[in-house]
Amino acid sequence: MLKDGTYLELNQKSYPRCYLHRSNSNDVARTEGLTFICTHKKEDAGPTNNWMAPAEAKDKVRPLFDGAMKGRTMYVVPYIMGPASSPYSKIGVEITDSAYVAASMRIMSRMGKVALDRLGSSNDFVPGLHSLADLNPERRFILHFPEEKLIWSVGSGYGGNALLGKKCFALRIASWMAREQGWMAEHMLILGLEDPSGKVTYMAAAFPSACGKTNLAMMVSALESQGYRVWTIGDDIAWMHVASDGTLRAINPEAGFFGVAPGTNGKTNPNVMDAIHRNTIFTNVAITESREPWWEGIDSAPTPGLVDWHGNKWAEGKSAAAHPNSRYTVPASQSPSISSHWEDPEGLPISALIFGGRRARLAPLVYESHNWQHGVFVGATMASETTAAATGAVGVTRRDPMAMLPFCGYNMGDYFGHWLAMGPKLKTPPKIFHVNWFRRDADGKFLWPGYGENVRVLKWMLDRIEGRAAATETPIGNVPTPSSLTLDGLSISRDTLNELLAVNPNDWAEEEKAVDQFFARLGSHLPAALCQEQKALASRLSGASVAS
Ligand code: TSX
Ligand code: MN
Fold first, then answer.
1. How far is the centre of ligand 1, averaged over its atoms, from the C-alpha of 201 (Å)?
2. Could you tell me which residues come within 8 angstroms of residue 76 by beta carbon, excluding any fewer than 6 positions away?
3. Which of 266, 271, 329, 465 stands the most exposed, by the fewest C-beta atoms within 10 Å?
């Protein structure tokens, strides 16, 4: 890769075994418009996925593979998603003509001999065929055949399109398998919250993009002096099953972090900043004159001689030096926050599920759902406001149920039904919470400091689980009483706190109109239980409006 320019060597003194890869400039992000779920019945893909019939998809895309690998090296990449010895792990084999993909798969999965040894003579694996072909977006397709557990990807070398173990297998194909087999494949980080006695409580959280999922998973606790610490198990995907003791247990199917670089620094994510100084592939970041990686929002100011992600000399005031979706690919084991249990084969018992979004006005800092069914409603009605990222307008509210809109491999209504069916299988289902780190005051200022201070919210959840913390009932769920949050050492006024925790019934009644529209798209696949939840909420809200 160094010889043919696929890799540029980074400073081997400060960044040993680290490399920079520059992708084709038309191939820098996932392409949802070119991503298809190919089922015999269109209805099985549902209204939120692009659909093609399997035979039609294969006839259309097979010619794009013809001769596509000519003159290139073909890599056969056997890999395990999940810890090597876990009964809940699954095997894939990716065929690819990209050395960058093969090298990335070695970081992101358990790859090579360990996978072949586990596979033995079994044919129980998910095949994935990948070629860069000519990288023309007109001839780019990411195809999933969940009925035969098969993936075809052509025309892109970008992570989410090309590292087939990740979004394609561990979310889209796995979500289908999970429904067939009675488990869950979710777009969730997994963390452990250690309390002063040393007990660790595990939580899984789903957030849409640009909400800081990786930062939360690797958070440095602001309450460390009081004995509260956060341990990382995963930052993107959770596979969860009902264990024989009736708990919901989660494994992280991945072995690495494929994280967004811009905005990452010693304050937003000190643990990952430490981790990425060795054995790391950087993609589409800028490079300094001393051959160190650089991006917007890193701790250091840009230095003379900076070269942007295209390979051109960068000048102040021009466009970004690093692509906004530039990435690091790093072994999870390198994070100082990695849990000593992160590869436990049985998985870790989940006590809380957390949904969240970026809502400038609507949602309080945190609320607790009433029960499993209401919690599923909270997840199903999640939404987030867009940021200044590469795509679309700023501040537009997008519905993203369970943060799975781009990743659910089947009909979203049926997916909600599967969630509802999982609750009753659990002895004590996890409590389901919703958080919003992004509420603003009338002047547009963030009300909550976020980052390491978020541990105070996790602690409140733990205290709720243990029956120690007080809450106020509201139409949307239970919010903390001001005194139930541990706020010592933080200067936050009583007014600000009240604003953070307020629930405005009129705003929520407005929100329900948007939820109505989204639910209507799901038609007859929308479970009746969610309509019930919607009606019950509407009635609680109208009661509250009359009262207020
Ligand atoms: O990741 C974030 N988290 C979770 C951290 C564990 N971000 C970054 C989001 C983009 C990926 C946040 N941004 C968080 C947050 O909790 N909160 C905010 C909003 C915010 C930004 C800057 C400040 C405060 C809040 N600055 C000061 O208060 C000085
Ligand atoms: Mn993700």
1. 24
2. 93, 94, 95
3. 266
Output phi, psi for 451, to 5 deg: 50, -130
CB 240 within 8 A of CB 186: yes
Residue 548 reports pLDDT greater than 70: no
pLDDT surpassing 60 at residue 547: no
- As a residue count, the chain comes to 548
Which pLDDT score is estimated for 311? 97
Which residue's entry shows tokens 């967004």?
260
* Closest alpha carbon to 422 in 353, 522, 508, 495: 353
The rounded distance, in Å, linking the Cα atoms of 459 and 354 is 13
| Most ligand 1 atoms within 8 A of CB, residue of 214, 268, 435 to mutate | 268
Helix (H, G, I), strand (E, B), or coil: what is residue 200?
strand
| Pairing relationship of beta strands 431-435 and 348-356 according to DSSP bridges | parallel
Which residues are near ligand 1 (CB < 6 Å)? 210, 212, 215-216, 219, 263, 268, 437-438, 446, 449-451, 454
Task: Report whether pLDDT(391) > 80.
Answer: no
Helix (H/G/I), strand (E/B), else coil: 179 = helix
Residues lying with their CB under 5 A of ligand 2, a single-atom ion: 236
Contact status, residue 355 vs residue 402, Cβ threshold 8 Å: yes
What are the tokens at 44?
């099985």
531 is catalytic: no
Answer positive or negative: Cα dihedral of 418, 422, 423, 425.
positive
Task: Name the more confident of 388 and 178.
Answer: 178
The pLDDT of residue 316 is: 87
Element (H, E) at 144: strand 141-145
Please report which ligand is nearest the Cα atom of 187: 2
Take residue 467 and report the two structure tokens written for it: 């029956």
Q: How confident is the model at residue 392 (pLDDT cuts 50, 70, 90)?
A: low
Q: 359 near 385, Cβ under 8 Å? A: yes
Residue nearest to atom 29 of ligand 1 (CA): 449
Q: Which amino acid is at 416?
A: F
What is the per-residue DSSP string for 235-292?
SS-EEEEE-TTS-EEEE---SEEEEE-TT--TTT-HHHHHHTTSS-EEES-EE-TTS-
CA 471 / ligand 1 centre spacing (Å): 25
- Bridge partners (DSSP) of residue 356 are 435
Alpha-carbon radius of gyration of the chain: 23
HSE of 186, CA atoms in CB hemisphere, 13 A: 32
Rounded distance between C-alpha atoms, residue 33 and residue 284, angstroms: 22
- Provide the sign of the torsion angle of the four alpha carbons 128, 235, 257, 404, taken in this order: positive
Which ligand places an atom closest to the C-alpha of 238? 2
What's the rounded Cα separation, in Å, for the pair 254 and 277? 20
Q: Where are the alpha helices (DSSP H) in 146-227?
A: 159-162, 174-181, 213-217
SS3 241: strand
Distance (Å, rounded) from C-alpha 111 to C-alpha 117?
Answer: 11
Distance CA 548, CA 544 (A): 6
How is residue 199 written in tokens?
């007990």
**Contacting residues for 504 by C-beta, under 8 A, at least 6 apart:** 362
Q: Does pTM top 0.90 for this prediction?
A: yes
Quote the CA–CA distance of 128 and 143 in Å, as a whole number: 10
